[in-house]
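Re: [ENG-882] Designed sequences occasionally contain unexpected residues at chain ends

Forwarding the minimal case from QA. Structure tokens:
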């Protein structure tokens, strides 16, 4: 208790908490985009439930990983060497997660460009399998993003309560933002393609990080923000043209 009171009275601890919360929220954007795109492929009545399950699992994973900080720190230690380059468990997990994101985003882009006709006879089984597959894929990416998130938290502060609070707050923000973001993506088809492009960029970043090439997160998020701003201008332009067409009619 004395430790917590001393921590609460420390201005440095509050600054570290605020910084870590912002960092965790930013890192959660990648996870949230993936969950939004994936759950939008499900039937309407299953989407919100799948999003909540996915984000809930992210919280459980991150809190579970925080309880094994000593193990998490060891994940950065080299365990294998290939062609003179040492890889840690973290590196291999990031590479696997990046490859999965590349595969998933490329598959979704291909499906958007050339959608396969649905067979009514297999619609029920497809929906059931789709929900289970969606939860499985969300769980896999939750693990990748959670490990990255917790290792970042460990690198920023040594106080476990600060890490726990930052993780809980960031996941709650994800939970609040999930439905509006998914609806926005679903209502704007061009945004789907932009978000899939983001996933490809994030996947390539994860692979680069896994191979030891550090990519500053600021560059990645600046590119995403610039692309999103251009898309907003395009949306405003389309709506203005549509209003003009309706007025002329």
């Amino acid at each position: 208790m004395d430790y917590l009171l001393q921590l609460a009275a420390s201005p440095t601890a509050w600054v570290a908490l605020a910084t870590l919360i912002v960092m965790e929220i930013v890192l959660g954007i990648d996870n949230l985009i993936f969950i939004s795109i994936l759950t939008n492929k499900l039937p309407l009545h299953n989407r919100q439930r799948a999003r909540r399950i996915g984000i809930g699992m992210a919280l459980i994973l991150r809190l579970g990983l925080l309880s094994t900080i000593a193990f998490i720190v060891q994940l950065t230690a080299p365990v294998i060497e290939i062609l003179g380059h040492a890889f840690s468990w973290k590196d291999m997990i990031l590479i696997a997660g990046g490859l999965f994101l590349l595969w998933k985003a490329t598959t979704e882009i291909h499906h958007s460009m050339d959608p396969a006709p649905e067979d009514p006879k297999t619609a029920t089984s497809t929906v059931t399998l789709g929900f289970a597959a969606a939860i499985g894929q969300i769980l896999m990416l939750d693990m990748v993003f959670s490990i990255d998130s917790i290792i970042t938290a460990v690198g920023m502060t040594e106080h476990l309560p600060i890490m726990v609070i930052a993780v809980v707050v960031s996941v709650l923000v994800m939970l609040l933002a999930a439905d509006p973001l998914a609806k926005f993506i679903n209502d704007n088809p061009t945004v789907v393609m932009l978000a899939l492009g983001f996933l490809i960029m994030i996947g390539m970043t994860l692979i680069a990080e896994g191979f030891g090439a550090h990519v500053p997160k600021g560059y990645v998020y600046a590119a995403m923000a610039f692309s999103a701003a251009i898309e907003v201008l395009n949306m405003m332009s389309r709506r203005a043209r549509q209003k003009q067409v309706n007025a002329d009619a």
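QA comment: On inspection the terminal residues look reasonable. The chain has two domains: 2-215, 217-249. Proposing we downgrade this to a documentation issue.
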